[in-house]
């Protein structure tokens, strides 16, 4: 259960990072 929780947390962090990156690129262009 703990491993699954860590995986979900990592997935959430990656998703947020991608969203921020896309937002920055969209703002620049």
Automatic annotation (TrEMBL):
Entry keyword Transmembrane: yes
Key words, A-Z: Membrane, Transmembrane, Transmembrane helix
Name under which the protein is recorded: Uncharacterized protein
UniProt KW Transmembrane keyword: yes
Residue stretches spanning the membrane: 7-28
């Amino acid at each position: 259960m703990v491993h699954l929780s860590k995986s979900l947390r990592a997935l959430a962090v990656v998703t947020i990072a991608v969203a921020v990156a896309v937002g920055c690129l969209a703002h620049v262009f």
